[in-house]
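Box 3.1 — From sequence to structure: LacI family transcriptional regulator
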Amino acid sequence: MSVQSHSGARPTLEDVAAKAGVSRATASRVLNASPRVSPEAHEAVTAAVMELGYQPNQAARALVTRRSGAVAVVFSEPEPKIFDDPHFAWLIRSAARSLADADVQMVLMLVHSPQDQARAERFLAGGHVDGALLFAPHKGDQLPTVARKLPLPVVYAGRPWGSLRGIHTVDHDNEGGGLLATEHLISLGRKKIVSVTGPLDEHSAMDRLAGWRTAVGADDETTALMTADGGFSREGGRKAMEALLARVPDLDAAFVASDHMAAGVLDALREAGKRVPEDVAIVGFDDHPMIAPHTTPSLTSVRQDTSAQVRHMVTHLLRLLRGESIRARREVLPTVLVRRESS
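Predicted structure (token representation):
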């Protein structure tokens, strides 16, 4: 049978069905991946789609399925932090790739001010996306509370503040990573091991600090003396190390809770005339591919596989969107030490 759409017109589902020799309903079932079609019908419809160059009308499909084909990736962080810290660029790239592999459009949302939050709440509740991946690590952030009330599935990165009951999260073993890093420094014979922490309104920073405390057996007084908050920034890392050198001039090692901060720590040690690793051994956290191998000296770091975290988040969200009944839980991914020249 020879079938042709109207001259110059976009092929329709009826054209595909006629070309394949099946009913419109059968053609629709094939295009919507229904299992209720025969292999012969599936092959015929697929061949017709390819020959005619048919593309579904996404707006019409959305009206029928009540799906947008899009997922929001929401960061509740100040914009300068998003664009200055390579860690966030890697997260965004990983999310875009994982969602594209699932044929889902990514909608990036940056939320920091109360106005941003109100706008995000309206957008997420308005049917513009089918679900959300939420990065909201800070204590006091109201966005996780808002997200719990949304009429769409949400998967969280890391451990948000408040109860974890009924929510889906994918995290890394931050405390185990901090312990691993510090025990490595102890194994090198280092005696005065300080720590540059992230902001302690984030669970990841608190957990990494807890790993250091366990390894060195630090009480609260020792922790106050031997640690400084670097704010997860390079400049913050530099200033934190300057403060620690003033407080603990005979320090001989540092566990730094992010590679971005560790780059600043190396700057401060260089300016102070300290050799790494001869005078001070350094271990970072993230094993960021754009930082750890490229510092001078190259940085020993605890690897958290950011791409794997995002893939797990996307897989979890897609299962929720398919209506699968899965238990809400906190999934914790392992961390490993990658040794380089700094220790």
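Summary of the box: The CA atoms of residues 69 and 103 lie 8 Å apart.
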